Amino acid sequence: MVVDHYEGSRMKIAMLLSGGVDSSVALRLLAEEGHDLRAFYLKVWLEDEVAALGECPWEEDLGYVRSSCEQLDVALDVIPLQKEYLDTVIAYALDELRAGRTPSPDIMCNQRIKFGAFLDHLDSSFDRIASGHYAQLDEAGGDVLLKRAPDPVKDQTYFLSNLVQAQLRQLLFPIGHLLKSDVRQLAADFELPTVDRKDSQGICFLGKVQYRDFIQFHLGERRGNIIDRETGKTLGEHKGYWFHTIGQRFGLGLSGGPWYVVEKVLNDNAILVSHQQQNDGRQRSTFDVHHMNWISSNPVFKDSELQVKLRHGPECTSCTIRPQGDRLKVELAQPDSGIAAGQHAVFYDGDICLGGGVIG
Prior knowledge:
By secondary structure, the chain is of the alpha/beta class.
């Protein structure tokens, strides 16, 4: 298998390892290129959560990290960032959930922890910071462009959309040009310790801790009614509006569906739902975005017709944007029923991720 190599001289690189197959393959590729490597594992798990939920496999993760480093004789540092993680990612997510909005903790985690607080712990001797993200970087016209990975399912530019030029200039994504199947094959070819590890599906950095369990630990349960928006009829109960998001279809426990969450009434702790027949007519084509982060210092669009992701995944929707003061007015070519306040809209011009902002 042919693997692209970075051009240039030998660099001193800080490699972020998670214990998964992606970052371990990235480490091996950099070692094959002869770079001076030092590995780092970021310790952000919270003891109270681990004790209560019993699902965070940080010890297992760290064991795989150590094995990967020992295989290549790479030094490893464990960096404690629990306070920073609690004060930024956790606090942000809980504030948004209490307000009835839909947070994007992974976007905040990349911006403020992985490529934020971690950088404060590094000395100036490192030339680059590398990770196992599926994304590509390209220098053009003085700016670093963030480009989508060729694997549309694994592409992680959505989660990296809040990074700025000062961060991107320091980064390397050694597997960003590969398909996930290629990464798995390389792990087998290199006989890496992580070859058979499954991908984590939990919240950023918390391994197998499921998002719902994380929410329940911090916010608890508060029973309320699920109400048919069209008829006002109570259809069932929920355990707290913070467990639900606009556009949600599954996990409502209602018969005669499909039913979709269309609104939250915070004062009454009520969830309003619509049946698919009514919900199809409530799909939205326009929304506002604020707190925009443009990745380029001087964003230039070929025209106003772009693509937008409203959530992580391979789907992109064509759209047009129009500045309105400190906000953007977005119009979708195809209406969407899952547009939720608080979640991020991330804009693309072809393969180039332009940046994103928060849906109002």
